[in-house]
Amino acid sequence: MHTKSLANELHVYTWPDATLREIAELVQDGNDDARKHNRLAISLVYIDSRGKFVVKKAGIVNTSRKSPDEDKTLAAIGFQNGDFLDVAILN
């Protein structure tokens, strides 16, 4: 595990009932590029029982209008303590 933050790394503390829309808003608060009219592709990243990283697509949130995935909660996508979220900013 690294101890220094990576470039564009954002640490957030939230709850299992947080939605992907709420996560997108937290990312927008901490990243200038995410504030523009973009889509945010959110993936769940975790380590499986074999010690391998697994990436599972969670959904896409459009920052300027409603999107079908935005009401999914972290619990609904299988997020557990210690997991990571990967957020890609798409133009």
Fold-level CATH name: Ubiquitin-like (UB roll)
> If you average the pLDDT, what whole number results?
91
Rg calculated over all Cα atoms: 13 Å
The count of DSSP E runs of length 2 or more, i.e. the number of strands, is: 3
| Element string (H = helix, E = strand) | HHEEE
CATH architectural designation: Roll
| Domain unit count | 1
CATH H-level superfamily title: ASAP complex, SAP18 subunit
Helical percent range? 10-25%
Number of helices: 2
- The rounded distance between the terminal residues' Cα atoms is 31 Å
What's the CATH C level? Alpha Beta
InterPro entries: SAP18 (IPR010516), SAP18_sf (IPR042534)
Family: Belongs to the SAP18 family.
GO molecular function: transcription corepressor activity
Pfam families: SAP18
Structure description:
This protein has 91 residues and is α+β, with helices and mostly antiparallel strands. The protein has helices at residues 20-30, 32-35, and strands at 39-47, 53-62, 84-90. Strands 2-1-3 form a 3-stranded antiparallel sheet. It is globular, with a radius of gyration of 13 Å. It has one domain (20-90): Roll (Ubiquitin-like (UB roll)), CATH 3.10.20. Belongs to the SAP18 family. GO terms for molecular function: transcription corepressor activity.
What's the topology here?
Blueprint: H1 20-30, H2 32-35, E1 39-47, E2 53-62, E3 84-90
Summarize the structure.
With 91 residues, the chain is of the alpha+beta class. 16% of the residues lie in helices and 29% in strands.
Features:
single chain, 91 residues, alpha+beta, Ubiquitin-like (UB roll), 3-stranded antiparallel β-sheet, 3 strands, SAP18, SAP18_sf, transcription corepressor activity
